[in-house]
Design brief:
- There is one protein chain.
- The chain is α/β, with parallel strands linked by helices.
- Strands 1-2-4-5-6-7-8-9 form an eight-stranded mixed beta barrel, surrounded by four helices.
- It is about 45% helix and about 20% strand.
- Helix 7 links the parallel strand 6 and strand 7.
- The longest helix has 23 residues.
- It has one domain: EAL domain (TIM Barrel, Alpha-Beta Barrel), CATH 3.20.20.
- The relative contact order is 0.13.
- The protein binds guanosine-5'-monophosphate (2 copies), manganese (II) ion and sodium ion.
- One guanosine-5'-monophosphate (G) binds next to strand 2.
- It comes from Geoanaerobacter pelophilus.
């Protein structure tokens, strides 16, 4: 209950902040985009990870104001990187399934883009398979309009939920993100290697990109490269960074 009450204050009084984890094209070591990840700088408990408060936000009906805050902050940061540092970065925001039931979702996304003057193709929405299952028809219609507007849609944690393979066929998403639970043992587990290889194959057949998440070692990177997975994200390349650290990170890439 205390976290719940604190969360409303956190959203309204800037106790939340975003960190940004680079996604790389490992064929040329360029950054293809960054994923915004929310943190809560709690006045007594210190910095909290989203796993400890996003579920609370869901239960307390605060996921919508939280999502609005994240969208607004991520879009204005992407615009600021470009304006102040000449960094042209695509920024990705995670959308919980429940926000698809909100009637203002499209409007808030458009407003976040307009207010920050960010071109729609610089925004990526990371959605999970659940969003496609629970809100199938509505979610697909909303996503189709958002994609027509120019935003990119990626399927997060791919392979961990009930894959809506029929919606993958009906609808052309930009990318599948291979969940880190398959990447962590991809070198030692033949099952995980088979799953990663299958997701790669499927994404190619469906003309989507695939991005491996949670890459922590050179061996994982090499295996993924061997199955033609060029897009990767993970601690091996970079932990999530403060906005102010991004220019330096990019400057020091090989
Ligand atoms: O950021 P971290 O590395 O701890 O992420 C943990 C989980 O929290 C991930 O599943 C991630 O997708 C989720 N998450 C991070 N930021 C956001 C956010 O802004 N909104 C939602 N809905 N989930 C987020
Ligand atoms: O569900 P989602 O993919 O949005 O989750 C992103 C989460 O994964 C964040 O909590 C982020 O900090 C975490 N993460 C990013 N890279 C790595 C990594 O290489 N290893 C592990 N274990 N977690 C990672
Ligand atoms: Mn994500
Ligand atoms: Na994920």
């Amino acid at each position: 209950l205390q976290l719940e009450q604190g969360l409303l204050r956190a959203i309204n009084y800037d106790e939340l902040f975003l960190v940004y984890q680079p996604k790389l094209d490992t064929s040329n070591m360029r950054v293809i985009g960054v994923e915004a990840l929310v943190r809560w700088n709690h006045p007594h408990l210190g910095v909290l990870a989203p796993t400890s408060f996003v579920p609370i936000a869901e239960k307390a009906g605060l996921i919508w104001p939280l999502t609005e805050w994240v969208l607004r902050t991520a879009c204005s940061q992407a615009a600021r990187w470009y304006r102040n540092e000449g960094l042209d970065l695509n920024v990705a925001v995670n959308l919980s399934p429940s926000v698809f039931s909100h009637q203002d979702l499209e409007e808030v996304i458009e407003k976040s883009l307009n207010d920050s003057d960010l071109p729609p193709d610089r925004l990526t929405l990371e959605i999970t398979e659940q969003s496609l299952m629970i809100y199938e028809a509505e979610a697909l219609a909303v996503l189709e309009r958002l994609q027509r507007m120019g935003t990119n849609i990626q399927i997060d944690d791919f392979g961990t939920g009930y894959s809506s393979l029929s919606s993958l066929k009906q609808y052309h998403f930009q990318a599948l993100k291979i969940d880190k639970s398959f990447v962590s043992d991809v070198v030692t587990s033949s099952d995980d290697a088979a799953i990663a290889t299958t997701i790669m194959f499927m994404s190619k057949c469906l003309d989507m990109d695939a991005i491996a998440e949670g890459v922590e070692s050179e061996a994982q990177k090499d295996f993924l490269a061997s199955i033609d997975c060029r897009y990767m994200q993970g601690f091996y390349f970079s932990r999530p960074l403060a906005a102010s650290e991004m220019a330096d990170f990019i400057r020091h890439l090989p």
